[in-house]
Structure formats: structure tokens, C-alpha cells
Write a structure and sequence with these properties.
The structure is a homodimer of 118-residue chains. With 118 residues, chain A is mostly helical. Chain A has one domain (14-117): Winged helix-like DNA-binding domain superfamily/Winged helix DNA-binding domain (Arc Repressor Mutant, subunit A). In chain A, 64% of the residues lie in helices and 10% in strands. Chain A is built from 7 helices and 2 strands, in the order αααααββαα. Chain A has helices at 2-11, 16-26, 31-39, 45-51, 57-69, 91-94, 97-117, and strands spanning 73-78, 84-89. Chain A has a two-stranded antiparallel ribbon with strand order 1-2. Chains A and B meet through helix 1, helix 2, helix 3, helix 4 and helix 7 of A and helix 1, helix 2, helix 3 and helix 7 of B.
Chain lengths: 118, 118
């Protein structure tokens, strides 16, 4: 407890405000998962939907649109026959790499912990 | 499947599964914000509620209970008069430090970008 106060004094920087800012944009149930699926190399709508457990086509469609509006995703239409639509993450979405990696690392650690406790 | 071959070729490590695992536990609108507020040094219920913009007492109460059940938060009752209840993050919640820090860093970067674009 004493050490905690000490740490807080030392840092003087609140985590809460910038974390609130981040979650405002990339929070919610699906956004980081969609970005992770694209990161994993899935490009086609059906492929992305299959990769993300439990997402409906309607929700994926609206998440992709929102991510495109916010500059995280590019929708690429290949105008050959048949027309092929692919989704890719933008360079700006790649600024989330540390967030994705730390979440993935934590997810692996947490699953290992649960396994050990069983 | 073509997509599987694609992943095997590219990286062999999927971000999606461990990120799904992580978000299953600490996803949602409030959990990381509550942990960040405790991290910032807020301890009393009212203090935590004031720190987190927009959270109701009912929701904060249920989030704290769930975080306590999952081993992220300790509820400490000081049995002097008047009785004082404080909340603290556990050592296990501190395993989320990299996640919190990377989210906070990204939040700061994103806000700066929006400012520059205005």
C-alpha cells in the first residue's frame, strides 16, 4: 500500500483519461477482434466472419464500415470478373500493434494460468 | 481451406484466439476503465465513480463484484467506526500493466493526431 502511493506519486500520469480515449474508438465487443482477424491475414468478408467466433454478418458489416470511416480498414474492390472485395488494415491500424500484442500475450498467459489451476 | 493454408504460410501465430481470450475476461465497456481508475489510486466507491465518466453506481457495483470474483480486485473492509470500504487491484491485475500502458500510449497518440488534423 505504501509502495502503491509512492508509485502513483512518481508517475503523476493518469492512465484513465487516455485509456478512455482509446476505448472510445476501439472499445466494444468486436473492433479489436476484427482488426486482429485482418492482421492474421483474413481478407474476404466470409473469411473474416468465419475467423471471428460468434459475429453475425450484419454486425461484421457495420463494424467494417465504422472501422473504414475511422481510417483503420481499407475496402478494396478488384473490378475483374467476378468482382472481388477485400479488406485490409491501414498503416494507421498498425499503430495498434503494441495494443494487440500485449492483449494477445496477456490472453496466452491467462489461459495458461486457468489450465494450471484446473 | 485456403485461409488456413494462408495463415500457416504467413506467420503460424494467430493474434485472434488469444485476443479473444483476453477480451472475454477484460472486454466490455467498463472493466479496463475500472482497473485503470484503481491503478490511478482511487480507492473508495464514490471516488472511483467520479473518476470514470458516465458510469452509474449500479453498473460500477456489478463491475467491481465481477472483477473481485475474477481475482482482479480486492474489497477491503476497515472495521473501525465509521466502517470504511476500499477497493484495490490485486497482483494479478498488475499483470495487465502492459495492456493498460499500450492502450494509454495509443490513446495519447490518437488524441494528438486528431488535434493535428483539426
Amino acid at each position: 500500500m505504501a509502495s502503491e502511493t509512492h508509485i502513483d506519486k512518481e508517475k503523476c500520469i493518469s492512465l484513465l483519461t487516455p485509456i478512455g480515449d482509446a476505448l472510445y474508438v476501439i472499445g466494444g465487443k468486436w473492433k479489436l477482434r476484427v482488426i486482429a482477424a485482418l492482421h492474421d491475414g483474413h481478407k474476404r468478408f466470409n473469411e473474416i466472419q468465419r475467423a471471428i467466433d460468434g459475429i453475425s454478418a450484419r454486425v461484421l458489416s457495420s463494424e467494417l464500415k465504422e472501422l473504414e470511416l475511422n481510417g483503420f480498414v481499407m475496402r478494396i474492390v478488384h473490378t475483374k470478373t467476378p468482382v472481388v472485395v477485400e479488406y485490409e488494415i491501414t498503416d494507421y491500424a498498425r499503430s495498434l500493434n503494441d495494443v494487440l500484442q500485449s492483449l494477445a500475450d496477456w490472453g496466452i498467459m491467462h489461459r495458461d494460468k486457468l489450465k494450471r489451476e484446473r
